[in-house]
Amino acid sequence: MPDLSTAASAAPRSAEVRELADAATAADGVAPFNEDTLLSLGERRLTAINDSGRLIAAALTRDLDDGTVEGELVVHPEHRRRGLGGELSDAVTGEAAPVFWAHGNLAGAVALASSRGLDAVRTLLKLGRPLTAADAETVSAPDGYSISPFAPDDADDFLALNAIVFRSHPEQGALDAPGLQARQSTDWFNADDFLLLRDADGTLLGYNWLKREGDEVEIYVVGIAPQAAGRGLGRALMQAGLERMHSTGAKRTSLYVEGDNDAALSLYRSLGYEQLSIDVQYRRNRS
Q1: What is the pLDDT of residues 39-96, one digit of tens each?
Q2: Ramachandran assignment for 202, one of left (phi > 0), alpha (psi -120 to 50 degrees), beta (any other)
Q3: Cα(201)–Cα(220) distance, rounded to whole angstroms?
Q4: Neighbours of 125 (CB within 10 A)
Q5: CB of 222 within 8 A of CB of 205?
Q6: In what order do the strands lie in the sheet with 194-199?
Q7: Secondary structure (3-state) at 183
Q8: pLDDT the model gives residue 285
Q9: What is the mean pLDDT of each run of 10 residues along the chain (287 residues)?
Q10: Burial letters for 210-226: b for 16+ Cβ neighbours within 10 Å, e otherwise?
């Protein structure tokens, strides 16, 4: 019979968690946990359902600053439709006001959210398009600005600007030096794919960080300093990123954007990006 257990850290079972996530990704076409979660398993609580010692369902959770419990959960494809998702959800809810990410917003996640009285409160869209010959056109920085690859000495400037640009974003805005170092240690990191835009005085005003995996390059994060908005710098950085992607032989490009970020969506769509998928965050109010 399956049994439920809770651990203060997911790190000791990280290999099992990744194996479970891989099985779900293969079946669903979308990963059940985001990158930050898998890079920070030591900071996630694991609520597990085991069958004869094998991990067949897992919820990874953390406490946010406002007391909310944020989580992602997955059930192995071979063990679905047995109520295990609901059991996990109930186990991690407690007295808190939980939020759960449903990556891909699959039918099972929608049904689970409905059964537990959770409402959709946030959407994250994945957009993408093929790279074309037009993306090979050389892009020059606007007059008075320069675009160059990331160097180790740029870390502090980037983190400071990123915190400002994403001050209202609970995930990206929390990126700190250890988080940056963790990403720099991944197989995909390439400093030449991390483009920084500075003005004539050397002040960092924007960045476009690319993540290459196989033939696809993700716009990992792009940001412009608030005081520099409206100067066309975001478009220049995006076009420089597309040129960089094309030069490395990539075939496709993708990015994630908040569903209510109308300005960013307008820019991305003007550059040919179209919606590929959607992630939804569900919440149950304390009341």
Answers
A1: 999 999 999 999 999 999 999 999 887 778 899 999 999 999 999 999 999 998 765 6
A2: left
A3: 27
A4: 20
A5: no
A6: 3-7, 45-51, 54-63, 69-75, 99-103, 274-283, 119-130, 252-258, 216-224, 204-213, 194-199, 145-149
A7: helix
A8: 67
A9: 90 97 97 93 96 96 85 96 93 77 95 92 96 89 94 96 88 87 95 97 97 95 94 95 96 95 94 96 76
A10: bbbeeeebbbbbbbbbe
Residue 54, both tokens: 């094998």
Whole-angstrom distance, CA of residue 190 vs CA of residue 245: 12
- Please give the single-letter amino acid code of residue 189: F
Structural contact between residues 179 and 155, judged by C-beta atoms closer than 8 angstroms: no
Alpha-carbon gap, residue 45 to 52, rounded angstroms: 21
Residue with tokens 């170092």: 181
CA pair distance 209, 196, nearest whole angstrom: 8
Task: Give CA separation, 191 vs 24, 43, 154, 271, 282, in Å.
Answer: 31, 27, 11, 24, 35
pTM: 0.82
Query: According to the model, what pLDDT value does residue 96 have?
Result: 63
Task: Report how far Cα 164 is from the mean position of its chain's Cα atoms.
Answer: 18
Q: What is the pLDDT of residue 206?
A: 97
Measuring CA to CA, how many Å separate 260 from each of 35, 123, 213, 222, 265?
Answer: 22, 8, 27, 16, 8
Separation of alpha carbons 7 and 112, rounded Å: 23
Q: Nearest-CA neighbor of 60 among 51, 49, 254?
A: 49
CA distance 79 to 77: 6
Q: Which residues contact 43 (CB under 8 A, 6 or more apart)?
A: 9, 62
Query: Which residues make Cβ contacts (< 8 Å) with residue 105, sequence separation at least 6?
Result: 278, 279, 280
